[in-house]
Every structure is written in structure tokens, then in C-alpha cells.
Write a structure and sequence with these properties.
Blueprint lengths: L1 H26 L18 H6 L3 H33 L3 H16 L2 H19 L5 H26 L3 H8 L4 H30 L2 H6 L6 H8 L7 H36 L1
Helix pairs in contact: 1-11, 3-6, 3-8, 4-6, 6-8, 7-8, 8-11
Length: 269
């Protein structure tokens, strides 16, 4: 009885979470005008065709993807280095740094956005430049960094700390030891952190809104459309983004599953 109730409860939760996405996907193929978007009028690809003809929307999408890729790569590199440094700390220093790392995630995003905007404006006035693509990338790296660190730290904790030293005893340089020993051990955490940083950057609105300057990202562009009416093209675009993220997660999970089976076979041998 308890198992049946728990399964029903879990099913309802998943329905509540994914029903809106399912409706969005279905209505992205709806052949209707912009005045009656919630009425099914037949299957059509018209909104996908119009999507690839909307120059401003595609420009906002391009900016968003460039920012997300740069932010994910920057946060992954800095987060990996920071996680290794934090993992080597002991006692109260490690606790202090971890509390400082967790603070940006607990801090309201509106506070982070306003504070980053003030910093970017100060720096821009100091050097005589304007806010734009660079300011958004730096802001996104800043708020994505803690998530990458927390994704990599558990993998470092699971790794044998003597492997790195053993590799150097066998003739590897410190840099070669890092890439040959440490990186393979924490690679799953690095990939998880990078995907999370990419997703967070792709989805962010508040920080992008305050730090965008003259550059328009997709969330900011969609927000500007809500002042009038949101075009069904957004349904088509959201469906494509959801499909890309879903395929990416499936590839990562399949890869990690194969790596886990390979490690189990090697352990059995």
C-alpha cells in the first residue's frame, strides 16, 4: 500500500513538473494565429519556419549561446582550479572558503544582479567602455562558478590523494600527473559542472538584464515581448532548446554509465 501511494505521489509530481513543457511542445506545432494560441487548429511547422526568419530573435539566440558557452568554459576552468585548491585546505580555512563559496548561491539573484551591475558600471566608467557582451560573460562566470566548484569537490574527495604523488614518483611532471591522473578521476564532476553552468547561463534573466548594456540575450528579448504578446515562435524555440538539452544530458548519462561499467569490469579483473 505504501509503495503504491508513493508511486502515485511521484507520478503526480512528475506530471506537475513536465505537463507545462509537454503543452509547450504540442502547441509549438499548432497551426493558429497569435490571437488564439491555446486553441488547437491543426498540425503545422509554420512557427518553426517563422522562427528561422526572425532576424532579431536569431541574433538574441546567437548572443545567448555565445555567452553560455564562454561562461561554461570560463567557470569550468576557474572552478576546477578553485576546487583543487579548496580540497587541499584543512580545518577552519576550508570551512571559511566553503561558506564564501556557498554565499552567492544563497544570495538573492536580484542582489547579485544589482551588485554586479554597479561593479561593471564602475569599471566601464573607469576605462571609458560600455557594458555589453564582455560584462555579461564575466557576470555569468561569477554566478556559475560556485556550482562548478560544488560539482567537482565530491569527486576530489573520492579520489585517492596519493595517486598524484605516485605518478610523480614514477617520473611524471606535476602538470602531466594532473592531466593523466587527477583529470580522469574528476572528469565526470567537471562535465556535470560545465553542463550545469551552461544551463544556468542559458536560462538566466535577472543578471543578464542588469549587465547586458547594448547586448540582448534571449531571456531579455522574450521579456520585452511580454509587454505586448508572446509570439508562438517562442514555443518553437523553447522546444528546440529543450530537445538539445535533453539529448545532451542523455549522451552524458550514457557515457557515464559506460564508464562506470568499464570501471566495474576492471575492478573485477
Amino acid at each position: 500500500m505504501k509503495k503504491a501511494v508513493s508511486r502515485v505521489y511521484l507520478t503526480l509530481i512528475y506530471i506537475f513538473l513536465y505537463a507545462p513543457i509537454l503543452l509547450l511542445v504540442v502547441f509549438s506545432f499548432n497551426d493558429t494565429d497569435t490571437k488564439s494560441r491555446t486553441v488547437w487548429s491543426g498540425f503545422s511547422l509554420r512557427w518553426y519556419e517563422m522562427l528561422f526568419q526572425d532576424r532579431m530573435l536569431l541574433e538574441a539566440l546567437k548572443n545567448t549561446l555565445i555567452i553560455a558557452v564562454c561562461a561554461a568554459l570560463g567557470a569550468t576552468v576557474l572552478g576546477t582550479v578553485a576546487a583543487i585548491g579548496i580540497n587541499s585546505m584543512k580545518g577552519w580555512r576550508k570551512k571559511l572558503v566553503m561558506n564564501v563559496t556557498n554565499l552567492p548561491m544563497l544570495n538573492p539573484e536580484i542582489v547579485t544582479g544589482v551588485s554586479l551591475m554597479l561593479l561593471m558600471v564602475f569599471v566601464a566608467n573607469l576605462f571609458g567602455i560600455s557594458l555589453g557582451m564582455g560584462s555579461i560573460i564575466l557576470a555569468h562566470i561569477t554566478f556559475c562558478l560556485p556550482y562548478v566548484i560544488l560539482s567537482i569537490l565530491p569527486k576530489l574527495g573520492q579520489m585517492d590523494p596519493h595517486l598524484y604523488e605516485a605518478a610523480q614518483d614514477l617520473g611524471c611532471t606535476p602538470l602531466r600527473s594532473f592531466f593523466k591522473v587527477v583529470m580522469p578521476e574528476i572528469m565526470s564532476g567537471v562535465i556535470t559542472g560545465m553542463v550545469m553552468a551552461f544551463t544556468l547561463s542559458l536560462d538566466d534573466f535577472i543578471i543578464s538584464y542588469f549587465c547586458s548594456g547594448t547586448t540582448q540575450t534571449l531571456p531579455v528579448y522574450i521579456y520585452s515581448m511580454t509587454k505586448k504578446r508572446v509570439s508562438p515562435e517562442i514555443n518553437a524555440l523553447s522546444t528546440l532548446l529543450f530537445a538539445v538539452i535533453l539529448v545532451l544530458l542523455l549522451i552524458i548519462n550514457i557515457r557515464q554509465g559506460r564508464m562506470g561499467k568499464k570501471e566495474e569490469k576492471e575492478a573485477d579483473v
